[in-house]
Amino acid sequence: MASAVTEQTTDPDPGEWTFTLTRLATAETATRRKLSLLRIRMATLHLQAAELEQDLTRLVITQNVVRSLAPEAALSCGAPQPARAVSARQPLTESDTHVLAVVARGQPMRARAIAGALGRPDQRSQVEGLRLRLKRLVARGWLVEHHPGLFSLAVRVAEPRALEAASSAPPSQGE
Question: Which of 28, 58, 126, 170 has its C-alpha lying 20 to 30 A from 51's C-alpha?
Answer without folding.
Answer: 126
